[in-house]
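Weekly structure sync, notes
Attendees: PL, DS, HV (note-taker this week)

Item 1: Endonuclease YhcR N-terminal domain-containing protein
DS walked through the input record. Source organism listed as Kribbella ginsengisoli. Sequence as pasted into the shared doc:
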Amino acid sequence: MVIGALLALVGFGVTPSTAATTATLTVSAAIGQQNGSVGTVVGYVVGQPTAANTVIRSGYTADTALALADSASTTSTGSMLYVQIPSGFRAQYGLKTNPGLLGAQITVTGTLTPYFTPHAGLKDPTAFSGGGGSDPGDPGDPGDYYAAASGKTGAALKSALHTIISSQTKLTYDQVWNALKDTDQDPANSNNVILLYSGRSQAKSTNGGGVNDWNREHVWAKSHGDFGTATGPGTDVHHLRPEDVSVNSARGNLDFDNGGSAVTECPGCTADSDSFAPRAAVRGDVARMIFYMAVRYEGDDGWPNLEPNNSVNNGTAPYIGKLTVLKAWSAADPPDAFEKRRNQVIYDTWQHNRNPFIDHPEWVSSIWP
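Item 1 (cont.): predicted structure, written out as tokens:
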């Protein structure tokens, strides 16, 4: 009977693999089923594969492939499925054209066979769907939070967002320590935090002022407006991040710009006499923290009116630059799972307000065209 069935398939020009019923698979199941069968895979977009063991999460170079994983926070390429993107789907699913797709859940149907050989892959897809979903571990913003900003653009949008996010619980500078141990927790090790600029995973317990400790970095340098560490902008965890003591010192109160020389203990970071650039993976994070501060602190609550400008060497003025560079960083490095989770934890547990540019990165160009 089995031989007869196979002969019948051959007689009609159909092979057993293509005759198989399409299955719905997780990414891990698809990785284990690289047998040429057709499968429908559901996963989260985690970057663009450029080689068998390399996936980039910003600065995308093409629309021809993407990587899927079972969690939006996955960083191990061994847990990723590389998906070929045929020309007909590139305008909607290519990451160079659609960088905001990073972290979204999508469904793809195609042939389960190695791509970027020998990496597990899905080739010649016939269907893509989704793109609006998000990892349950990285919930999006509550829709009604921004209701008052609906339909607004430019200055009107900035004003509406200022009113929305100014409703917050304010922390003391001592409380910031515990907040950062929660907001910046390493997703792979709950005993550690991820240091912003250097990217190092370090024990939560090593906070302090020692050479290899981590401390509280003010991304909007506190001297730019002279607000110090008093409760207010000096303790707002939307722009306070864990960082190695010496790297924090190397950044100092420098403005942000491209260029410069390598920074010790900070792979991918550069600095010169008037500016600092973090590693590429968090440049968008830095930009969106700056934009948050500029909207939250408008000079109407006893604190300076903070604004980005297109200068460096801003000194103690309530300005920080460069705006054009920060806008480019935000566009090139869209919000990822870590940044989205951080925003949610701040909202749920600590300050009960949100960074609107993590939830809606498109608002950057509306407010600062």
